[in-house]
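Q: What residues go here?
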């Protein structure tokens, strides 16, 4: 097993684990990290459809996390 394969498996494990989280924030964080790993793996192996899909998943998760952070800050002020 190559380091690139390990990266792909680690990303997949993180994405799967994220769905077991009860906290939406933890889910999005783990999912974003896992999808980032899978995106990098897909780029390195030239699996472009997978890279595009997981890249969008990362962007969506980060956007939602930033939106939540902004909304949380607005509530506390």
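A:
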């Amino acid at each position: 097993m190559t380091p690139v394969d390990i990266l792909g498996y680690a990303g997949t494990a993180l994405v799967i684990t994220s769905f077991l989280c009860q906290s939406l924030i933890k889910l999005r964080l783990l999912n974003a990290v896992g999808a980032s790993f899978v995106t990098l793996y897909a780029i390195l192996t030239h699996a472009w459809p997978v890279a595009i899909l997981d890249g969008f998943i990362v962007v969506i998760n980060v956007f939602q996390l930033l939106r939540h952070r902004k909304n949380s800050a607005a509530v506390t002020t």
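A: Context that may help when evaluating the design: The chain has a mean pLDDT of 95. The chain has one domain: 3-76.
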